[in-house]
Amino acid sequence: MKYISLTAGDMGNVISPTAYLDQLPTLAASLPEGARAFATDPDHYNFGSKRCTKDLTLEHLRGGTDDADVWIELGFRHNCWKHEEDLTVRYHGIYRFVLDVPGQEPNWGRLGAVILDEILPDTHGCTHEIACLSGSITMACRDLTARWSEAECPDKPTIR
């Protein structure tokens, strides 16, 4: 991550999107349309928001081609304590995909919950790096589309 702060120390973990959010107004102008909409959504980096990416977990990874366009789709499952929706991100025109799970064979099922993500402009579109508890995913693509969809939490306790 270039701007997002993910620091583990004696006093605990410090997770901060502040430096990224400070740069985002300048960066946004260079992002493709879908990436810009997702990155600049006011809820994206608001830890109290139901549409913050923090604590989502990767549920599926799919890929394919449409009209000679290579795409990869990541489906993130909600956390019933925080979210009410699942998130699907489809990356169009993929030209780099890196799955990093240190100390293990790369396996997207072992990534754990999302800590934070960062979307940056790139020569051919944008990059999207997603830091998780046990690794990371980095996509480089022409653009991306993000879609939230209603999810059910049948086991969520009600507070009375």
Short précis:
This protein has one domain (5-150).
What does this protein structure show overall?
The chain has helices spanning 18-28, 33-40, and strands at 5-9, 12-16, 57-66, 69-77, 85-92, 96-100, 114-122, 125-132, 135-141, 143-150. The protein is 12% helix and 46% strand. With 160 residues, it is mainly beta.
Question: What features would you highlight for this structure?
Answer:
single chain; 160 residues; mainly beta; four-stranded antiparallel beta sheet; 10 strands; 12% helix; globular
Secondary structure blueprint with pairings:
Elements: E1 5-9, E2 12-16, H1 18-28, H2 33-40, E3 57-66, E4 69-77, E5 85-92, E6 96-100, E7 114-122, E8 125-132, E9 135-141, E10 143-150
Antiparallel strand pairs: 1-2, 3-4, 4-5, 5-10, 6-9, 7-8, 8-9
What distance separates the N and C termini? 41 Å
Tally of separate domains: 1
Measured by DSSP, the beta-strand proportion falls in over 45%
Rough outline: globular
Mind describing the biggest β-sheet?
4 strands, antiparallel
Helix-strand category:
mainly beta
The tally of helices reads: 2
Got a strand count? 10
Helix share, percent: 10-25%
- Gyration radius, to the nearest Å? 16 Å
Give the spatial strand order of the biggest sheet: 3-4-5-10
Q: List unreliable stretches of 5+ residues.
A: none
Mean pLDDT across residues:
87
SSE topology string: EEHHEEEEEEEE
